[in-house]
Write a structure and sequence with these properties.
Strand order of the largest sheet: 1-2
Oligomer: single chain
Structural class: alpha+beta
Number of strands: 2
Shape: elongated
Helix content: 10-25%
Distance between the termini: 60 Å
Number of helices: 1
Largest sheet: 2 strands, antiparallel
Radius of gyration: 22 Å
Length: 72
């Protein structure tokens, strides 16, 4: 089984990404076939991690709710 060469180069991706940036959009991903995935706004990664100083509860150590009333 032989591998097919990829239909794009790093340089061609860099040129396409620069053109997207100049157009005012943002590249949020690249598919295996070289297609760029675009968005109007960049991804906000701040929501992926808790803020400093906040208490993070390990779900394995959290108290289990006995009924829906426990959530109030």
């Amino acid at each position: 089984m032989t591998r097919k060469p990829i239909p794009f180069t790093i340089a061609s991706l860099a040129r396409a990404m620069k053109a997207v940036k100049l157009a005012g959009s943002h590249v949020i991903g690249i598919r295996p076939d070289g297609t760029l995935i675009l968005a109007d706004n960049p991804i906000d990664t701040a929501g992926f991690c808790p803020a400093k100083g906040t208490d993070v509860v390990d779900p394995r150590e959290a108290d289990l709710a006995v009924s829906w009333d426990d959530f109030r």
